[in-house]
Write a structure and sequence with these properties.
Helix content of chain B: 25-40%
Number of strands of chain A: 9
Helix content of chain A: under 10%
Order of helices and strands of chain B: EHHEHEHEHEHHEHHEHEH
Distance between the termini of chain B: 46 Å
Strand content of chain B: 5-15%
Number of helices of chain B: 11
Largest sheet of chain B: 8 strands, parallel
Strand order of the largest sheet of chain A: 1-9-8-4-3-2
Shape of chain A: globular
Largest sheet of chain A: 6 strands, antiparallel
Radius of gyration of chain A: 16 Å
Strand content of chain A: over 45%
Chains: A mainly beta (about 140), B alpha/beta (about 375), C alpha/beta (about 375)
Oligomer: heterotrimer
Chain lengths: ~140, ~375, ~375
Amino acid sequence: MTRHVIAPVDELPPGTRKFLTIDARPIAVFNIKGEFFGLLNRCPHQGAALCEGPLIGLAQSSDPGEIEYTRLGEIIRCPWHGWEFDIRTGQSYCDPKRFRAKTYPANVEPGSNVVKGPYVAETLAVSVESDYVVVDL
Amino acid sequence: MNVQFRSGAEPASSVGVKTAIADCDIHPARATATELYPYLAKRWHEHLETYGKHPYQGMMEGPPYPKAQPNASRRDAWPPEGGPQGSSLSFMQQQHLDPNNVALGVLCPLNTGQGIRNQDLSAALATAINDWQIDKWTSQDSRLKGSVVVANEDGLAAAAEIRKRAGDANFVQVLLLSRNVEPLGQRRYWPIYEAAEEAGLPIGVHAFGFGGNPITASGWPSYYIEEMVGHSQCQQTALASIVLEGVFERHPKLKMVMIEAGFGWAPSLSWRLDKSWQRLRSEVPHVKRPPSETIREHIYWTTQPMEDPERRDHLFEVIDWVGWDKLLFATDYPHWDYDDPSRVLPAGVSAANREAFYLGNARKVYGLA
Amino acid sequence: MTSPIAGGVDCDLHPAVPHLTSLLPYLNDYWRDQVTTRGMTDLVSQSYPPHSPISSRPDWRPARGKPGSNLEDMKAQALDRFGVSYGICNPLYGVQMVFSEDMADAFCRALNDWLVKEWLDKDARLRGSIVIPVQSIEKSVAEIERCAADKRFVQVLMLVMGDMPLGKRAYWPIYAAAERLGLAVGIHAGSNYHNPPTSVGWGSYHIEDYVAQAQAFQTQLTSLIVEGVFAKYPKLKMVMLESGFTWLPSYLWRLHKFWRGVRMETPWVDRAPLEIVRSNIRFSLQPIDAPPDPATLNRLFDHMQSDELLLFSTDYPHWQFDGDAVLPEGMSSDLVRKIMIDNPHATYTRLKEPAHGHDPEKHALGPRPDGWNPVFGKDHAQTK
């Protein structure tokens, strides 16, 4: 693992992202409400530049017509087919093969009951050291 | 490191990445609202600014079912110089035609004058779009070929436009949409088929359009996904109409390409048509052969959106039933449901079938073999 | 030829109303006079022209009268012929075509009463579907509740081509009532012709309308799934009747593919469409829009990835097969048993309710719980 200094922290304020290439791999680093996350900029579905997609929240519903919309800015939609990926974990929210969600009790933590897909975007370890954003690759 | 690809879809396993391909469904767009003006009589400039297009649906701007992405397109397809996705030839070359080695790109312009209620305007826009295709696209990049856009609800005007463009190597097909005022087999559209056959041009029937009918036989659905999936049903019904009205009996040399509506439904529709025809053929004596034979002989299918079953043996079986010689590869660039050529076909396809799928069939159908 | 086994359930039979006058005994004074003095003759849908080859197999067509109008014929030609223990009656009388909700309601009540008196009461194997006046959701729910008291009703019947896509929430009180009362909801081929009978307008021919039924089932399935009907009513079973089924696998691939990218539009869809179909949707067997080669049909069964989806049916008296070839060739005896017996019983849980000792007097369909009282005359039950 090599450590790569990406940028000074104040160059990457909350809600922004930075694209760069490290060792010929396209990556993007996101600042989500003060926390930093890294993703390989390649959708595991058909290879689109995943990290160029819009950031949205997670839409869930246990009752048709009622939508619980949480985790604003933490879900990225692939610019091609619109698949949703959790920036924190890379987990996709689509195509449940073996995961069957049931009706949601009111006290369940948001995000844990949405059907998860088998596709996971590649995440990268990002940390902050002395006001610099650092990626381990 | 937890990247997962659909098995068989890794780029390294695909032989077709750098092989030349045909893309039988590319959507060029106008960069600005006025880009068509040089090709349109002045009276229509003012008319459009005052009254708009007046389509067979209520909204003056935007579609009634909001798309999945802006302009229904990939978000990475915005040209750097500005304008909507698909409006820049240089960016299309750079992002798509060159890296994907597109040797033949068939243009299917949408949002033209098809599906509008003013038939004079529809005809004017059609001929303008056709001039625009030559000027901005096909004369600038010889890989690209145009579709003759016509006033779909005015058979005589449409036929005149086809005759005007017949023999012009810039065009390889006539373009219609699947949803019209009436099912496409109805006789108001017959002049179009006559002119196309005469001109030696196939007809591309592209999903979409508005003809004022609810988009299901039981009224208007709620969601965009219902419209997206519903293109399959609209295309099936349009094709059934074409076959049952005897269009191919009257025009035996005519070919049609079903564009962007899938092909997986072709076998089951053919079986159902055959069974019904055996039972009810006395109602339609002009239909002289089993519909499945007519479909096999006259119909081709673009591949996007590619059928995507979990098991690739299921996909291969369906393609066997449809025919490896009937599929025309398409990406639908720059739309969001784009199929990447290097990912779309799982491993296990013979070299001959790959070649037919990606290029050979298209060259034959469009007379470029 | 694959032989049927005894003890099955025929899930799609069509007893025919001979003429509108056959319903007169079941209408109140007002409606009786409306029918007779306004010259109303019959409610026959273009979906099934009586003399169309589809409407009746030649050897099932009686010398006089409508096909399917004679119980003795149905016994000989369908119930006894295929040795079933139960036959579910789905009347296709054109009551859905009228526009007045009051008229539709009167005719539906009469039709359901007619079915009980002239069919269910006369053969212990027969079960019924409740025909509802979808022109009014309220009246539909009331009629469901009225008829559900008779356990021989196992299903609510709707048409595949109606006024609105079936998943729309306006219809949900119907589904709630059905789920609550243990009734399946049967969606049958046919149109009320309030919309063009295809998704691209009015075609020219009966054959076009008939072929288009399959596409209508596809769009309805999309609606039912993406609107979340089965998220809301997980115990509800819906049966697609006379829909064909060979289109199902490729249809599901496409729905699944797009749903993955637009999931957020309908986030209450919590399972893959195939899972929802497996748990809540069934298809009657006829018509089998089959490929010419039986081996191909077996491949298609594999594509469907479930042996629980099909329910045996003859579609009597419609002409879908010849002789006794009601089952596709080359079907395993396991699959025959599933289709003829297991799957129908799992779908129609009311079949468990005893019909022996059914007392017509004790269980006659009574007045409606909502106290429906016609403005214009006495309820027919009170005139008896």
